[in-house]
Fold these 2 entries.
Entry 1:
Amino acid sequence: MKKLINIFLPILIIFFIIIISCKKTDSNVSQDSEEIFKAFYSSEPIPSDIIWLTNDTDLEFASPEAKKGGTLNSFILSFPNTFRVVGPDSNNSLRGLILDNQLSLLEMHPNSENLIPSLATHWAFDKNKRTMYFKLDKNAKWSDGVSVTGHDYAYTIEFMRSKHIVAPWYNDYYTNFIEKVIVYDDYTISISLNKPLPELYLYLTLSPTPRHFYKQLNEEFITKYNWSIVPNTGPYQITKFNKGKFIIFERKKDWWAKDLKYFKNRFNADRVIFKVIKDNNIAWEYFKKGSIDVFGLTIPDYWYDKTKVKEFEYGYINKIWFFNDTPQSAMGMYLNQDKEIFKDKNVRYAFAHAMNVEKVIKTVLRDDYFRLENGYVGYGKYSNNKIRARRFDLDKVDNYMKKSGWNRGDDGIWIKNGLRFSVDVVYSQEEHTKRLVVLKEEAKKAGVELNLDRLDPATSYKKILEKKHDVAWMGWSTSSRPRFWEHYHSDNAHKPQTNNVTNNDDKELDILIDQYRNSIDENERIKLSLILQEKIYNIGDFVPTFMIPYVREAYWRWIKLPKKFGTKVTDNLFDPFNTSYGGLFWIDENIKKETLDALKSGIKFEPVTIVDETYKMDIIK
Amino acid sequence: MIRINPLTLNKIKRFKSIKRGYYSFIIFFIIILFTLFAELFINNRALIVYYNKKIYFPVYNKMYPGKVFGLDYDYETNYRELKNNFSNSSSDNWVLLPIVPFNSYENDLKENLYPPYPPSLKDKHFVGTDKAGRDILARLVYGFRLALLFSFTLLIINYMIGISIGCIMGYFGGVFDIVFQRIIEIWSNVPFLYVVIIISSIVTPNIMLLILIMVFFQWIGMTWVMRTITYKEKERDYVLAARSLGASSSRIIFRHIIPNTISIIITYAPFSISSGIITLTSLDYLGFGLKPPSPSWGELLQQGWSSLQSYWIAGSVISAMILVLTLVTFIGEAVREAFDPKLFTTYE
């Protein structure tokens, strides 16, 4: 008997544990999905006092001459580890290409910057300043033929909040920033943020997620969808791929949006092939042979020297230098105001006047870069274009330094009470050394000593964020509107791990920054933005250096571009998919044949180098 | 007056008779002498300026601002311009410039032409400029001086620590010997390059710090050799004699044993110098060496590699390395041969 109990008891216990745990998970799942269900679907009618907006008056930007057909051959440097666009390893080179074929509710017109329809035909703003309403296009279809409905947007929220996608940032963003999607009927929805913000459309134009494809998510998501081709709403879909070798996108012949005003005559190539070529130099050789159709030439070496070959001189390959007008990274020197030497405004001004950035541009950078005039260039109405960066000027350096009681020492460097004007410049890219040595030698003339302190990227970033630098040589990434709080508010000064790397601490400025952040009136924000930039210029803790407001590319002559080549925001003229400005080019098969014949027989064409300044910023004209 | 031991004299005679090594030594010595006074040959400061009946020697003096010579600026005089000014005007002022009128830092940049510039006699860039328009010859020479300073300091500190500890281990033996043997064994397994990379990613090393890091790992090399020799030497009769005369241990080690092992130490020295130069060059090449813009062979090599079409960059630094390392190796071989004990002692 005892023996029997000894055997049975453990088995019984295990059995119970299994039953209990099963029950527990079951009830969890049903509870969760019920909650989500309640949150997403509403039986209340849509408010009647909203005004529906649409846009069919802005100009089209595609060329009516465009012909469909042909293949665009391009390359990627590495094959992605997954086709998923969320979760581990998803941040790869292909992600952008896949996402570009996933339309969102609205687009911004690349030239006028007004909203234009995409998956939604109409939109409206709620009075609460945190909700937008959308009427969906009833013709919109997934690539597998299923209609796109409001439920697919509700599913985006469910999908992005799911723990199974292993993407904590998205989990958080779609929970704490985006509040909810309400589905009124199959083709009417509203989306809300958790708090009122100006220019809601920057945040609320979500993309749908195909609910019929994913259904209920579970912990297998990460592995199950690694190589699945998810239904999309855009012009192309992956049709073939060979891991490590190539990926082929094919144009949907009966794409639902092909005749819409702002999509007409775009996305013309029948196929887009991305070969994996692991080295830029090898890709360049492929390009010269014609196995790749387009190649970026922004680097001066390529634009000037490497293009001195037969293919360019005989006119088989054309070059284009296209100026655009987009927000520019705030590249430059950030002076740490917590360091004794930079507490004095005159010294900061003098430092700026001691930097011969123009000489660096003229000599080392082959006059290809442009002087950045201020940290907020290219933000349209938000940019204060009256501001000019302080130029190299020895007299002004003299004036400012003498005003603060400094004198030149024996070695020509300014000195005051034993403190020499000698500062460390923290930077990380070896490529930048040759720019900095020129600045250093020129600064010596102005009596300023720069010590170059090159650290590896992680360490230099750490040093800067811990505010241990004298001068940080760096740039910030851009956003669609100027940001001031991160970089200049005293909330972020004198403490590590914030982006206020100049330790700017100015109560008057704080008030303006808070006003700017809290305002939901666009005009007021623009006005504040201009004032803030002027104030920041007067503080003088940032010496702007360079900007590159253009793209340069080479393309075989069978690739054709519209008369205006691109749009204001184009940063790749041959982008095949970009929903905002991409797919404007087309391929002329007759010219391709003619060119390939000419290549064989050695016939020459007129070499072509286009410089287009239509969208060149006023500030550099 | 230093009295030279007849045995040593013999060795020197023997060294002189090995022509390849001896001439290498002379050439190397001249090169060192030259680099010590490099400012007189390669410099942007003039050797002599004769201005308004006064003579100036800017090379080893403080900085003269342009105003001193009637120019309109407060920063250091550009003597090349000054020379042009003087020769264009009819005054009897003159400037004597060094052969290469550039220092190793300044960027000699031109309008509408982009560096690196090829070698040119007219511009006085005898082996061209690097990618930032700096004279390569100047950077080679000053870089060599830095590398030599580095190697010699490294050698002296290494040998001081290595020889002392090695001798003490060998002479006293016992616990001290065993403990240090284990320490050294563990020490020598620390991967040197990684430590340098880690340290130089946290701070940008200056030359002293780099030497200290290197010493930290390289003092070990000499200890093993010295320990073994001391073991052998301390059993020899002269040590016994000294001890019976009442000499202290330190006197025996430093006055008797070390002088008797000097020949072995010397044969190691040239090779340590060349390895010092190579180490500094390779660290600079990898970007973990001296901080920019210090003139350095490794940095030049890196530039040359990334722009092979500018053959003069890689070409000049590789030739310089081959020359110096060959000379040092020849010297080292000759020293080793000259100090070979088999030639002067006979064992019975």
Note: The interface with chain B takes residues 359, 362-364, 366, 394, 398, 408, 410-412, 430, 433-434, 436-438, 440-441, 444-447, 451-456, 458-459 of chain A (CB under 8 Å).
Entry 2:
Amino acid sequence: MSANIHIQAEDFDVSDEVEALTADQPTTGAVATFTGYVRGGDGLTALTLEHYPGMTEREIAHIAADAAKRWSLTGVTIIHRIGRLEVGERIVLVAVASAHRGAAFEACEFLMDYLKTRAPFWKQEERDGANDWVDAKETDDAAAERWRKP
Amino acid sequence: MNVLYFAWVRQKVGRSEETIEHTPELRTVSDLAALLRARGGGYAGAFTDMSRLRAAVNQVHVALDAPLSSGDEVAFFPPVTGG
């Protein structure tokens, strides 16, 4: 299984990505997708995402390879946007194809948990014209950690 | 060695990358951080509390006691916040 990994400023179309992921894959019986959006509601107007070119792609490929070892997958697409994104915009897509739903659901969650704690992205929040770096959350570390349990 | 800085580490030190010659005294990532901290100014601000920093060598996450060699790409950054 090869993973499609894209780091880009441009938006993506979820249904186009699912279409591409399932094309010519007759053994696929399930696709689980996760889409992350810029969440507003507390004065936040936009996020700016910075990343480490090279390491980002490498780290995500590593995470996808880990998922492919744990579950029987027929395809993975991971898209992460960078640059300035306003409230309501899509940030990230994880789409996982498998023969059955169990593997697709679990691998999708695993990929998101690891993406949040391993992939070198950093978010800056924009509120009232001021920019502040987002602190990492311990709950994200805990979410990734639970996959290490036997 | 090529040394890279990201997010608020980059802002504090005032640059995104620089070349630092590898010397025998620079055994680990921690030694490099100490050298940078000793420069004072924005570097001291960025490298004082090492619990707030993470590092990568040749684009792989490492602990601060990871060894360094000539030609390495070393990066310093805060804990990641993507997704």
Note: The interface with chain A takes residues 4, 6-8, 56, 59-61, 75, 77-83 of chain B (CB under 8 Å).
